[in-house]
């Protein structure tokens, strides 16, 4: 039998004898921690200072702040608004008062004299529901943690591939400004990555034909929009010391759902030491 040892129940009644009776009943059937309040204000104070309360058993007929007012105040506060409330009453027995109880957020409305088994069954039902919700949340958190670890591992693997690849990789925005450069690109260009970020690709790249270089981004974008990829272009990187580094260049467009280009991936193979084939 589940004794609900990990739960906390707040019982509220201005009559000390009723509190004692209810505490004894709960102790007989479960091991949940029981907190007591002898007024609506005391219940508010305890609930706000004990965020781990799982259930409130609340008497309706109390002086100064009755159960309806107490429940309304509890439901107004973010910390306590989701705590289930079971109303107990010996006076407010009409359907009108029961509806008022539900309107202010009661999970249940029981009339005194209370049948012990009925009350324990009601409390057990809500604790089981809370227990199931906790279990679902734990499993969801576990799945999120597992998925996060998988994504972190995938990200680290991808970063390792990019950082260790022999080809230079540059990520550009649609205007041709450098957003990311891998270590091979930094070595080939003799720039630190921080210095490359924000530079125009035209500052570090040239094609062999002057008219191609002058129409650099315009030609690119037109071709990329049509095909998505341009590959095996013979060109040169312009290193920091103005050296020309011969490269074989490829460009691929990344598009959003509307077909707009969001990024351009550029990959360059260093062709230094390779002899161009002649016709």
Output the keywords.
alpha/beta; 279 residues; six-stranded antiparallel beta sheet; 24% strand
H and E order: EHEHEHEHEHEEHHEHHEEE
Number of DSSP helical runs: 9
- Sheet-strand content, in percent, reads 15-25%
Q: Please tally the β strands and state the result.
A: 11
Distance N to C terminus:
88 Å
Global structural class: alpha/beta
Provide the residue-averaged pLDDT.
88
Structure description:
The protein has 9 helices and 11 strands. The chain is α/β, with parallel strands linked by helices. The strands form 2 sheets. The protein has a 6-stranded antiparallel beta sheet with strand order 7-6-11-10-9-8. Strands 2-1-3-4-5 form a 5-stranded parallel beta sheet, sandwiched between helices. α2 (40-49) runs parallel beside α3. The longest helix is centred in the middle third of the chain and has 49 residues, at 116-164. The radius of gyration is 35 Å and the shape is rod-shaped. The N and C termini lie far apart (88 Å). 23% of the residues are buried. The model is unreliable at 210-215 (pLDDT under 50).
């Amino acid at each position: 039998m589940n004794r609900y040892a990990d739960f906390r129940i707040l019982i509220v009644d201005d009559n000390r004898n009723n509190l004692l009776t209810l505490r004894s009943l709960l102790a007989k059937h479960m091991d949940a921690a029981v907190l007591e309040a002898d007024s609506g204000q005391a219940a508010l104070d305890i609930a706000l200072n004990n965020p781990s309360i799982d259930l409130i058993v609340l008497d309706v007929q109390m002086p100064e702040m009755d159960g309806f007012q107490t429940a309304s105040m509890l439901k107004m506060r973010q910390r306590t608004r989701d705590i289930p409330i079971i109303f107990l009453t010996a006076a407010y027995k009409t359907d009108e008062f029961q509806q008022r109880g539900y309107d202010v957020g009661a999970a249940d409305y029981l009339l005194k004299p209370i049948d012990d088994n009925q009350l324990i069954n009601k409390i057990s039902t809500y604790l089981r529901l809370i227990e199931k919700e906790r279990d679902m949340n734990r499993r969801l958190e576990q799945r999120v943690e597992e998925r996060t670890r998988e994504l972190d591992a995938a990200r680290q693997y991808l970063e390792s591939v990019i950082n260790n690849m022999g080809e230079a990789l540059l990520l550009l925005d649609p205007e041709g400004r450098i957003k990311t450069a891998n270590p091979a690109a930094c070595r080939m260009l003799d720039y630190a990555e921080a210095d490359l970020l924000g530079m125009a690709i035209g500052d570090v790249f040239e094609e062999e034909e002057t008219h191609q270089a002058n129409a650099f981004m315009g030609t690119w974008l037109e071709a990329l929009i049509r095909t998505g990829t341009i590959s095996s272009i013979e060109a040169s990187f312009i290193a920091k010391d103005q050296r020309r580094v011969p490269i074989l260049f490829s460009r691929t467009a990344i598009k959003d759902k509307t077909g707009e280009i969001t990024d351009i991936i550029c990959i360059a193979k260093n062709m230094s030491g390779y002899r161009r084939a002649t016709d």
